[in-house]
Prior knowledge:
The complex is a heterodimer. By secondary structure, chain A is α+β, with helices and mostly antiparallel strands. Chain A has two domains: about 1-30 and about 290-310, no CATH class; about 40-275, Alpha-Beta Plaits (2-Layer Sandwich), CATH 3.30.70.20. In chain A, about 30% of the residues lie in helices and about 15% in strands. Chain A has ten helices and twelve strands. In chain A, strands 9-1-12 form a three-stranded mixed β-sheet. Chain A has a three-stranded mixed β-sheet with strand order 2-4-3, with no helix packed on it. A two-stranded antiparallel sheet of chain A has the order 5-6. The two termini of chain A are about 25 Å apart. By secondary structure, chain B is an alpha/beta fold. Chain B has two domains: about 5-225, NADH:ubiquinone oxidoreductase-like, 20kDa subunit (Rossmann fold); about 230-325, Cytochrome-c3 hydrogenase, C-terminal domain (Cytochrome-c3 Hydrogenase, Chain A, domain 2). Chain B is built from 16 helices and ten strands. In chain B, the strands form three sheets. Chain B has a five-stranded parallel β-sheet, with helices on both faces. Chain B is elongated and about 125 Å long. Chain B starts with a helix and ends with a helix. At the A-B interface, β2 of A face β10 of B.
Amino acid sequence: MRIGRRDFLKMTATGGLALACAPTLAQGRPHHDLPPAAVGILYDATLCVGCQACMVACKQANEMEVEPGQGEPLWDAPRDLSARTLNIIKRYENGDGAVKDRAENGYSFVKRHCMHCLDPACVSACPVSALTKDPASGIVGYNEKACIGCRYCQVACPYNIPKFQWDSTTPKIVKCQLCSHLVAKGGISACCKVCPTGASLFGPVEGLLAEAKRRLHMEEGKSYDFPVASLASGQVQSHRAGRYLEHIYGENEAGGSQVLLLSGVPFTSLGLPELPEQSFVEVADGIQYAIYKGMVYPLVLLGGLIYIIRKRVSTTGPAQSGGEEGV
Amino acid sequence: MADNNFDAISKKLNNISRRDFMKFCTVMAASMGLPLEVAPQIAEAVTSPKRPPVIWLSGQGCTGCTESLLRPTHPSLEHLILDLISLDYNETLNVGAGHQAEEAMRQSIEANSKQFILVVEGAIPTRDGGVYCMVGGRPFMEIVRETADKAAAVIAIGSCASWGGIAAAEPNPTGATGAPEFLVGKPVVSIPGCPPNGYNFLSTVLHYLTFKKLPDLDAKGRPKFAYGRLIHENCERRPHFDAGRFATQFGDDGHRQGFCLYKLGCKGPQTYANCPSILFNEVGGGAWPVGTGHPCFGCTEQGVGFAMPLHEQADLKFITPAADHAPVTSDRGGGVSAAAAALIGAGVGVAAGAAAMTARRLAEADKNDDGGEAS
């Protein structure tokens, strides 16, 4: 095939035009804002006493099976989140583990469950929209009827939250859905409802963020009122403020999340990953959106292919192809 | 409460002081989980001149229920139950005996038809026409049926009356049956226990006197105020269970330190009763089976007490987290199991054997080939 100078210039011009139209790749999709009625949980590790009432309440509210550990089957003893455990209290311990909320020779609890990201990677990765982010409450929910069991969500989640029922013949993905069935009825997440100290606090995300910032300004050792169960419950408990790290985990991590954490121990020690402010989804979606924006690139590609093929057909002619028929 | 009524009661009760009497009423209200404001109402009910008669029938039982009711040392309890309810017939406590007592019962039943409370103690043998328990020459089952028809309310006291108890244990040669099963179609309140706590019985009766109705019952006919929670949930040894500290033998170190008795066969995790909360006989803390170091044997729970072997471990109704926590990062996989190692070993062995055989055959084939060429 021979491309003339004129043809080459034509192609270059079209491609250049298309490129000029496409925005920068990483900015292909705007940053997701907080949904209008976004609800979430503020977990304050300095208030957590490790009673595990939240784990019991979670299993009851979501009708989950208990998970005996490796020893005797007397307790519900999950070691990690699993297809039977949506919410777990874990313990960090260092050295002699004497003082709470201290990284060295101290200990701390941490509560792990779905973070309900503003820009959830699982929702983006799901090819069949079985995982969706509620446009109002922002709760990342799961529809088992749509799920095809591909487990892309498991790979996509930066917090390693969605779990798969490996031991089931009709497996589902299992993750915390913020007790959306209770929230729909005007209730709050079961884990927050039973928390005796207010370490797990339910409420609108904006309110929780303000509460978290209030706590960061507290003077260590001084007594303050801390709301219990939910911001709207009106109940408070007095505690002496602990030593907080100047960091609200979930405020900016991977585009931000509706679950926020406060702690006196570095979050990486509590098993929470260090994440960039920009969500992975934003980057991935940006590339996708840029490629397919206005179908410009696909059309250019298609046009180019058609052009090349036509050119070839016209130069080689039917006689030669007829000769190849016998092969 | 009219003062003159109280004076009459006070005289009957060895001059009980007004203060002690109100204390009793308050204790009763508390044990039923009622607000303390109802204490005066209870006082009014029990000082009413018209006290409901109680007919107490004893069948296949050991009289432990009656004994346990008399045992509490709370001031004047026995006087109260004998004088505040009109106990018209009870074989253990009757002053009269024989035909005299039977006649008193007949008269009371006739005079108070549809007004008296029938209490059944002991199981009702039904096999062979009920000949295994005869009272006054008549089968006990007949007496119960007749009396229940005329009673305002029926209370089955003790495990035997509730479902047959020890008398109905396998192989149940006498066809022992509990009152609720025997009196089909008639509401029966069960106060199981071996023996039942006297306060649970008294509270039920006083509830009836005060509110003119029976307390809320669970699916097995037991008052919810007394049988609403598992023993395991209120047990003073529960923290030891959560922390995994168990007595494994009577008299071992754990047993001496008051550790959890689950591994000795304690049936607390599947038995509903308020024993750990109200204790027995008012002699202070620890006065209940588990408190004394003996596993609960599930006497208030049909299918557990007298049915499960004493040292068989209980089924846990609700499995909750232990007192320890998962570490932030948990190890995955449990290493190589013996079976897996054996399987791998077998595989390696087979492969090695096959390789050796192949090598030998090849060597033989080579030899044959060489021989062939030579010949």
